[in-house]
Amino acid sequence: MSEKSVIIRTQSSRVLYVITFMGMVLLPVLGPILSRIFVPTTEWDWFSFLAVFFGFPALVAAVAYVAGWYTKKRSCEYHAPDWEYKPVQMSIEDAGQLPRRYNREYRALVANSNYWMFFVPILIIMYLIGLPVYIYTVDPGLSSNVDLLFTGPLLVLFFVSLLSGYLATSNAASEDFTLPLVREAVKLAHKQTKVPGATHVYIVMDKAEHEGFKIYSDPRVLLRVSGLEDKGYVESWSGEIGSVWRMLCRLYESEGHPQVVWWWVAHDRTFRKYVFPDESGYYVKFPVRSMTSEPGVKDVELLTKNAVAILVREEIHRSKSSEALESLMDELNAKVD
Fold first, then answer.
1. From CA 117, how far away is CA 297, in angstroms rounded?
2. Residue spans of alpha helices (H) in the chain
């Protein structure tokens, strides 16, 4: 491509800095003036209450949010390249730290919203609404400090709304650059490491690079089975915290034995076995003894135990059993037949 795929507009950052500076200058001036003039002490004034202690903070929040939104929308120019993805493997710890580093590096390109971005402004506005009510009904003496009690939270409201509008907004590049559900995969990996026989547990993602920019997709958990590290693996996908939505077990081709894969998907709830080159497959019984006949998406440990046991059981049927594999099956409370 002759033109760059991603162009970061530094002018948008300058606009954000100008808006921030204006807020830092104007609000410390307007806040004390308005709060001192309109704070009710001896007589309740609905205009002061609605206009100054509700309307003005709501206006500040709205203007700041729109400013952040507008700046983010114009922060880049994006022409989607032909991304070429390659799988990369990383430790659970590195994958857990990736979102913070990545979102900081690509904050002009990703949409990264959090609950606090919406709840904090609401809480501050509720405080500012309650401030004149408390002064009027409980402690009129606080009116002497109303400028600080009003202006301080007002500044916080401005900065939080501005930052929320910027961080939470998507632009032309956000669809490609926003990280997938990495934390969900990390949580899943932590659960699977506790399963007997699960070893070499890593996070795998598809990664693409272009002109120095990196994007990721399809996070999943990859684990090996103790004693079968070079013969197969288990791969799991998570759609939400503490769950598994899809699971793949693979046993490589060996002498006289074809490759075998098993799929478990959330809507099916039973492992389906495919012996190469057969593509139709058939369902197999869960080897692990359990009161749960059809494990669901939240039964991560039980499903992982069954996945490990399925590989071990198939290897025992392929070749002569070993004491280590038999011991692992006993630890998993699984049946060989």
1. 30
2. 10-38, 46-47, 56-73, 92-105, 116-137, 146-168, 174-177, 182-192, 300-318, 323-331
Cis peptide bond upstream of 277, omega within 30: yes
Neighbours of 161 (CB within 10 A): 27
Place of tokens 């400028």: 147
C-alpha R_g of the chain:
29
Element (H, E) at 19: helix 10-38
H helix or E strand, kind and range, residue 219:
strand 213-225
> CA dihedral defined by 290, 296, 300, 306, rounded to 10 degrees?
50
- Structure confidence by residue, pLDDT tens digits, 50-66: 888 899 999 999 999 99
The rounded distance, in Å, linking the Cα atoms of 336 and 285 is 11
Query: pLDDT tens digits, residue range 259-286?
Result: 999 999 988 889 999 999 888 899 999 9
pLDDT digits (tens, 9 = 90+) for 149-180: 999 999 999 999 999 999 999 998 999 999 99
Query: By the 8 A CB rule, do 203 and 91 touch?
Result: yes
Pairing relationship of beta strands 198-210 and 86-90 according to DSSP bridges: antiparallel
Q: Smallest Cα–Cα separation from 334: which of 306, 314, 293, 315?
A: 306
Is 16:68 a contact under the CB 8 Å cutoff?
Answer: yes
